[in-house]
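Hello, quick one for you while I still have it in my head. A protein chain has come my way and I'm curious about its shape. I'm sending you its amino acid sequence along with the backbone structure tokens. I'd be grateful if you could look everything over and explain what you see. Here's the protein in full, and shout if anything looks odd to you:
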Amino acid sequence: MCDDQGRPVRLHLTAGQVSDFKGADVLLADMSDETEEVIGDRGYDSNKIRQSLADRNITACIPPKKNRKSKPPYNWHLYKKRHLIENMFAKLKDWRRVATRYDRCAHRQECELPDNGLCDTGFG
């Protein structure tokens, strides 16, 4: 998760074969009260996530999956800001150990992340 300027706010590592939305509840639970909108890709399109955000009066800007029968609307212009999270991951991958995941344990990955006060990994 990143803020509106593309700075990492919170990370949650899951296994490589786990679906995106399974770790989303951990990230969404700790969002600040000032959050107005959440932008996500199709991997986060689930009724559970949408309802969780709606209950907190947060706008969900998530395009529907291709095979979804009822396709909820989303703001395409707002969705264009998703490049901020992609840029954040590109910057994190500058640290080679993070990009290649030499250390498979989450507690070891936490040690490799930059300690700049902006990143709360939620490990241990």
